[in-house]
């Protein structure tokens, strides 16, 4: 569930607004807002596309779990999902190889079976 939007890091690029399939964010004149957190499906797209690492999506979809985190708990986690997924600027770093997206061998085996 979407938990945090760090307004100091946010660049107001509105990528989170554009990529969210459930319209959780509201575009404003400045920084977007988390307008409908209850609609978050925990897909992590907003966090992946946020190049400023200003968003944190808690992996638990339950609001009660996400609410237990304090800002000091969240700060070290900002950008972690993008990095660990090998997304964007991390894609060329072998330490963060994006292996879970590389399913060619699995599909090839199923097809050639």
From TrEMBL:
Q: Which SUPFAM superfamilies does this one have?
A: 4Fe-4S ferredoxins
State the InterPro entries in the record. 4Fe4S_Fe-S-bd, 4Fe4S_Fe_S_CS, Fe-S_Ferredoxin
Keywords (A to Z) from UniProt: 4Fe-4S, Iron, Iron-sulfur, Metal-binding
- Cite the 4Fe-4S ferredoxin-type domain residue spans from the record: 1-30
Query: What PROSITE patterns does this protein map onto?
Result: 4FE4S_FER_1, 4FE4S_FER_2
Which named protein is this? 4Fe-4S ferredoxin
Q: Could you tell me which Pfam families the record lists for this protein?
A: Fer4 (PF00037)
GO molecular function terms noted in the UniProt entry? 4 iron, 4 sulfur cluster binding; metal ion binding
Q: Quick check: keyword Lipid metabolism in the entry? A: no
């Amino acid at each position: 569930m979407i938990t945090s939007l760090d307004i100091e890091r946010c660049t107001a690029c509105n990528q989170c607004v554009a990529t969210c399939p459930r319209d959780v964010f509201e575009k404003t004149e400045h920084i977007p807002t988390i307008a409908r957190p209850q609609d978050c499906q925990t897909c992590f797209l907003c966090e992946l596309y946020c190049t400023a690492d200003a968003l944190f999506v808690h992996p638990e979809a339950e609001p009660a779990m996400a609410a237990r985190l304090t800002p000091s708990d969240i700060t070290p986690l900002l950008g972690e999902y993008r990095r660990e997924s090998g997304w964007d600027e991390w894609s060329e770093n072998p330490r963060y190889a994006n292996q879970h997206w590389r399913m060619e061998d699995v599909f090839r085996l199923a097809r050639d079976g």
